[in-house]
Amino acid sequence: MGLQADASVHNTLRRFTSPNVVALLPGTGRKREYVVYTAHWDHLGRQPAQAGGAIFNGAVDNASGVAGLLMLAQSFSRTRPAAERSIAFIAFTAEESALAGSAYYVENPVIPLRQTAAVLNLDALHIGGPTRDVMIIGYGNSELEEYLRDAALLQGREVHPDPNPELGWYYRSDQFSFARSGVPALYAKAGLDDAARGPAWGQAQLSDYMAHRYYQSADKYSADWDVRGALDDLRLYYEVGNRLAHSRRFPRWYPNSEFRVGRNPVHESATE
After folding, report:
1. CA 174 to chain centre
2. Full-prediction pTM beyond 0.85?
């Protein structure tokens, strides 16, 4: 184009330690096989002082996901009969820093990855009321989608692909760290078809959040949130996890998935 550019970058490195938080509910039978629920507890800290120094509360992204993680842990602790597989609940740090917390965990797993049947990730729960649909981020990758579709059918909801795959959301949340290491990992959330006001309203609400609150200090809790949709999604994730926790089978990647790698053949051939 006949143009030249000359630039320099000045930065400062700051090193610190930040924990991942792991809780485990032991199984009653196959204790050394695991279903893992994940969320991330971090956000961006504060704005620079010259911008006012406001806190990035991250109420939707991702305090809502951590709240969902705690609710699921409470629900499974009260479930009878208790799960045969163990269930782990992990709140990762540094998701907003290139998935550093989950990447570290996968490199130094508390639970062996070969014994991890599946990962179900919670990231930014829906706060806009019930929807007629569920969208799968990273659609078309694993049999976990069939588990989700069965659970959604019982709620009278349809399952659809993420309408904006070009944004690459699957590669930008903690389940990706597990997927690239071969562990089937699901990331799903309420779709856009609002049960009372339709898909156009749902899209408008999402667009408003992305424009005015996502990654901004305005992502704060509000008493007018309608959390019924979030509860529907948590029930979905509970049903999927409960089925997995009582199964003898390890879900598989679909043959055409970019994440498909070999897994323990004993697990692969097991039946429910």
Report:
1. 7
2. yes
